[in-house]
UniProtKB/TrEMBL annotation:
InterPro entries per the UniProt record, alphabetical: BrxA (IPR014948), BrxA_sf (IPR023137)
Superkingdom field: Bacteria
Protein name: DUF1819 family protein
């Protein structure tokens, strides 16, 4: 397994990408007041435009907190810098979502990545269900009902479509790998921030979530170098990455325009 199988849940069936909600929170976030006051204001003023207060509170609890709040106070200011770059914003949100929704990360890193490398052009709901059955047999997932497995499969595919990894409504096709330099830099810093070494950054299975092979990852490091956020040098199998940014907000400021 490329990702830890502990903490796997079917929550993706209830949340999905919810990019519009994430964007709205970032847009209206007031850095001059506390986290709690921001979240209360968002709910009280109906800024998520939900049907009810209960639904807004549910989105805050299940989606916004684990994805954008719990990782630390650096996330929302950094995402504000990406609001005008819809692709990079989407990619950053995909990283934060797949970090929280481990089943989404695992599906992208393993079967979907293998399908793409094997020349497959699409993926079906039935294949996602079959993967869940296999994961249950291995002891990594609960024995969900057929109804839950169907909802989870649809949720995974819909999220991957919304995050730009797949395309299509009924038939999901695999989009050729396309991670922007700014989105890549965001993810690379987040991995660095979590204690990743230079070598582990370049070899991380996280890049498989965008279906990137090692050659494409190396090319993106070169593009990040041109943005000025880092420099990378190699000598044989040794890799060294030097950061020229001090924090995530500086990383996402690079290349803005």
């Amino acid at each position: 397994m490329t990702s830890a199988t502990t903490g796997l849940t079917g929550n993706i069936q209830k949340g999905g990408a919810l990019l519009d909600d994430c964007r709205r929170v970032v847009e209206v976030w007031d850095p001059s007041i506390s986290e709690g006051d921001n979240l209360t204001r968002i709910v009280d003023q109906g800024l998520l435009a939900k049907r009810s207060r209960t639904r807004a509170e549910d989105v805050i609890r299940r989606i916004i907190r684990p994805r954008l709040i719990e990782p630390g106070p650096q996330i929302i200011p950094a995402l504000k810098n990406l609001l005008s770059d819809s692709q990079a914003f989407r990619e950053a949100c995909y990283y934060e979502t797949s970090r929280d929704e481990k089943l989404l990360a695992l599906f992208a890193e393993e079967p979907l990545y293998a399908m793409w490398n094997g020349g497959r052009l699409g993926v079906t709901v039935q294949e996602v269900i079959a993967w869940q059955v296999q994961m249950t047999a291995l002891g990594h997932l609960p024995a969900w009902t057929d109804t839950v497995r169907l909802k989870v499969a649809r949720g995974l595919l819909a999220a991957l479509r919304d995050f730009g990894v797949l395309a299509g409504d009924n038939t999901k096709t695999i989009v050729p790998p396309n991670l922007s330099p700014r989105g890549f830099s965001y993810v690379a810093w987040r991995l660095h921030e979590a204690g990743g070494s230079s070598r582990s950054l370049s070899n991380s299975h996280v890049w498989r979530r965008w279906l990137l092979d090692p050659t494409r990852v190396s090319d993106l490091f070169r593009q990040a170098t041109r943005l000025g956020v880092l420099s990378m040098s190699t000598a044989g199998s040794a890799v060294r990455i030097d950061w020229h940014a001090n924090n995530l907000q500086e990383v996402t400021s690079a290349g803005a325009g």
